[in-house]
Specification:
heterodimer; A: Aldehyde Dehydrogenase, Chain A, domain 1; Aldehyde Dehydrogenase, Chain A, domain 2; 2 domains; 23 strands; B: 140 residues; alpha/beta; three-stranded mixed sheet; 7 strands; 22% helix; 31% strand
Chain lengths: 507, 140
């Protein structure tokens, strides 16, 4: 076991500045209105820095810088852009511990996760898009003997990106890596709950990109997000968040006739077929871990497996063992490397989860474990900790239908294959899902029949850069990750060329 | 008007059988109206701050055929009541519950207008009783 020192203590691997400004045009600049807001850590509830409170003036300034930088950046060679992304990745890797602890402090998540997942995945993502860009091909189509259609990829220009607070750095890199690789300039707005860690990262790499290619404007949604999303000076807006804001951003985008990428969450089913328990072996153990994955990142994951569907033949025994597995999840100080689950990201999130635990009880769902807040004592008493909670109920209950975004799973029984698929698809959303079976045919068919953009088969919560991620139904529009994401940040230029010397014959 | 969930205080006369306000939420709406003008609510779903009610300047969010109007919230001191809306598909899963709009300390997110005040609107819920449920079926 190791416990990292809290930031602010002399032996901490990271020290925050007392204040963070906007990053515009390659330098840190104060907000036009001179206002800042406090940023606190969910670990203790105490403020640790203050951050620029951006307004439309700041967004316009960032757009000016982005428009100044975009034309030259879009014409750099793919090798040059790929090399810069690789250099950013190297710099982040060299400072992994510092960035991971900053991320844990800003968001509340366990450093076990930021050290092993969030930041390594971000690094890999940068390298993936550096590689993918180098290998991307345009197209040549021979229309007839003398006519050729050339298809070129061109950048969109200046794009806006609004980042969520659950994986502040990883989600920023998911959006930045393909956008920058494709040759766009970006104005990025971090979430107001977690506005700081991206600046800790940016300060380490800010000399690598030409000024104005990446601009970061902090602030509240209504004051900084809205002027960005509604601007007629962006060629695309990408957003991760909830459905009402997703609709609002789509409305703004329709006024400007620009594309949107939306990732709006889900209520992901985690389906366990009877044959999972045919043997008590390593695979069975893996399936039990798969059940407990609802607590990863305190349940603050768009793909949280928040509905566990277990087949009748193994229901009682599997659930009993799954609850035991859940009870082994170690909650504690997020900077302790043994801690598996940390703090919820904000007080309002904490209150919302408790309100759902309340409605779950009212609807008659049974609490099998957890069911309330955790008071971890000492400095952590001011933080936002929830016990991993297992509910047993039915799919019509609100706790089965709404994304609680906390460490809460709702469990129901199914009888056969058709019943499993019916329940799994009885949801407004379709982002993630998993099927667990030793039978390849069952797993394949269920994976195809579940209406979700990502179906894990016999695993959960893996996020490799080379696998497309995005939603069916109300979970969103577009994809992230994978080579195809370059396309989301590119225009197609068709050059239709005639090599014939003769008139076309119309006039 | 339906009663609130246990331990939740509602402002009498602030709502309908489906949705109402706590006194703290009503006070906040008066202050926010001073800054932003008349307001509206649209209940969100999904990721991150999903399941939280979003409060916008009235008309900023374009309602459509896929939205349900749950009721108007009456706030003492405000001329116009504040409409509360939700997408019809989401309402299908929420319609058996009475909602109380409350406010808690928080950071907020999305474009909801209260976030810069350091607070966040939050929904408290309770199930309708069988009698209430029957009565509403008769009406609708």
């Amino acid at each position: 076991m190791a416990k990292y020192a809290n930031p602010g203590q002399p032996d901490s691997v990271v020290s925050f500045k007392p204040r963070y400004d906007h990053f515009i045009g390659g330098e840190y600049v104060a907000p036009a209105k001179g206002q800042y807001f406090e940023n606190s850590t969910p670990i203790t509830g105490q403020a640790f820095t203050e951050v620029a409170r951006g307004t439309s003036e700041d967004v316009e300034k960032a757009l000016d810088a982005a428009h100044a930088a975009a034309p030259a950046w879009g014409k750099t060679s793919v090798a040059e852009r790929a090399n810069i992304l690789n250099k950013i990745a190297d710099r982040v890797e060299a400072n992994l511990e510092l960035i991971a602890i900053a991320e844990s402090w800003d968001n509340g998540k366990a450093c076990r996760e930021t050290l092993a997942a969030d930041i390594p995945l971000a690094i890999d993502h940068l390298r993936y898009f550096a590689g993918a860009l180098r290998a991307q091909e345009g197209g040549i189509s021979q229309i007839d003997e003398d006519t050729v259609a050339y298809h070129f990829h061109e950048p969109l220009g200046v794009v806006g990106q609004i980042i969520p607070w659950n994986f502040p750095i990883l989600m920023a890199i998911w959006k930045l890596a393909p956008a920058l690789a494709a040759g766009n300039a970006v104005v990025l707005k971090p979430a107001e709950q977690t506005p700081t860690s991206i600046h800790v990262l940016n300060e380490l790499v800010q000399d690598l990109l030409p000024p104005g290619v990446l601009n970061i404007v902090n602030g509240f949604g209504v004051e900084a997000g809205k002027p960005l999303a509604s601007s007629n000076r962006i060629r695309k807006i990408a957003f991760t968040g909830e459905t009402t804001t997703g609709r609002l951003i789509s409305q703004y985008a329709s006024e400007n006739l620009i594309p949107v990428t939306l990732e709006l969450g889900g209520k992901s089913p985690n389906v366990f077929f009877d044959d999972v328990a045919l043997q008590n072996d390593a695979f069975y153990d893996k399936a039990l871990e798969g059940f407990a994955m609802f607590a990863l990142n305190q349940g603050e994951v768009c793909t949280c497996p928040s509905r566990a569907l277990i087949q009748g033949g193994i229901y009682d025994e599997f659930l009993e063992q799954a609850v035991k597995r859940t009870e082994q999840i170690k909650q504690g100080h997020p900077l302790d490397t043994d801690t598996m689950i940390g703090a919820q990201a904000s007080n309002d999130q904490f209150e919302k989860i408790l309100s759902y635990i309340d409605i779950g009880r009212q609807e008659g769902a049974r609490v099998l474990t957890g069911g309330g807040r955790s008071d971890l004592g000492g400095e952590l008493s001011g933080g936002y900790y929830i016990q991993p909670t297992v509910f047993e109920g039915n799919n019509a209950m609100r706790i089965f239908q709404e994304e609680i975004f906390g460490p809460v799973v709702s469990v129901a029984r199914f009888t056969d294959y058709d019943d499993a698929i019916t329940i799994a698809n009885d949801t407004l959303y379709g982002l993630g899902a998993a099927v667990w079976s030793r039978d390849g045919s069952t797993a394949y068919r269920a994976g195809r029949d579940i209406q979700a953009g990502r179906v894990w088969v016999n695993n959960y919560h893996a996020y490799p850069a080379h696998a497309a991620f995005g939603g069916y139904k109300q979970s969103g529009i577009g994809r992230e990750n994978h080579l195809m994401m370059l396309d989301h940040y590119q225009q197609t230029k068709n050059l239709l060329v005639s090599y014939s010397q003769n008139a076309q014959g119309f006039f | 008007m339906g009663a609130p969930a246990d331990g939740v205080e509602e402002l009498p006369g602030s709502g309908t059988e489906r949705v109402a306000l706590t006194p703290a939420a009503a006070d906040l709406l008066v202050r926010l109206t001073d800054v932003h003008g008349p307001l509206m609510f649209h209940q969100s779903g999904g990721c991150c701050d999903g399941s939280a009610p979003m409060c916008y300047p009235d008309g900023d969010f374009k309602l459509g055929g896929q939205d349900v109007h749950l009721g108007d919230l009456t706030v003492p001191g405000l001329e116009k009541p504040i409409g509360f809306h939700m997408s019809a598909s989401q309402f299908e899963y929420w319609k058996h519950t009475h909602l109380t709009v409350d406010v808690v300390k928080g950071r907020g997110s999305g474009f909801s207008v209260e976030a810069p005040e350091g607070v966040r609107f939050l929904i408290r819920s309770r199930l309708f009783t069988d009698d209430e449920w029957r009565e509403m079926q008769d009406v609708t």
